[in-house]
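Chain A, query sequence.
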Amino acid sequence: MTSEAAVSTPAISRAPAKRDYYWLRSFVAGGVAGCCAKTTIAPLDRVKILLQAQNPHYKHLGVFSTLRAVPQKEGYLGLYKGNGAMMVRIFPYGAIQFMAFDNYKKLLSKQIGISGHIHRLVAGSMAGMTAVICTYPLDVIRARLAFQVTGEHRYTGIANAFHTIYLKEGGFMGFYRGLTPTLIGMAPYAGFSFFTFGTLKSLGLKHFPELLGRPSSDNPDVLILKPQVNLLCGGIAGAIAQTISYPLDVARRRMQLGAVLPDSEKCVSLSKTLTYVYKEYGIKKGLYRGLSLNYIRCVPSQAVAFTTYEFMKQFLHLN
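Chain A, predicted structure.
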């Protein structure tokens, strides 16, 4: 029995129908994984945005205080504000990221000759940046909607936000505000996320196959991680990746929110935003504000994402 982490050559006798629409099945698997992961932590994601951008209604509160205050002020659905835009964005984002990772990994290994653990790091970084570029406008919309507080709405919905930003913030360029810090932050985040998960997976199946692995339901000859081990490896991967890239995520959110913030003129570039946040709020209350929440949200998010993707790979016969 071989582990899924190992590179294997498909059998010549495999039916051609098995390969039909492989890219589409891979796209769907990634999209479903992304949606499940983000829905799991949507309330925590809203709180993170409110704290990162120093929302005047909640900036004096901590993570758990904000989680209690939002339902009191805006109702329980307030915790899911902006989640509609997130789902519209996250399906193609997750789909593109996972599909691109598989393809970049094959490209680096077979065409360029980069193999071993390092090709996961490079492929993950490239996949993350590809997904960001393709879906960034939807992320900007989602951030703007999530930042709004009941009674002080600037936008009435996704379509209105698109229309308003296009007219008042420089056309299409308004949708790519903060793209540079996002790409710079995504490279280490996605890279270390895929790298850590893939490395833990391959080492676990190599050294403890009976304890941590089980046969794949769609291909008994392939060994995969048990669901609970998948969850653990995904959570560890998310925690490490978030710690490395968090200050860039803070800068990205502030640049995305743009004119919504009273100090938006000081957040026009990556370096200026990082410098301003550091001088004004410091490291703990500025560059790493909301990190405790990010640990709480990124661990289940990445755990669910990787575990769901592994399940979808079996369900759609991608192993």
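Residues 227-257 form the longest helix (31 residues). Strands lie at 2-3, 213-215, 222-225.
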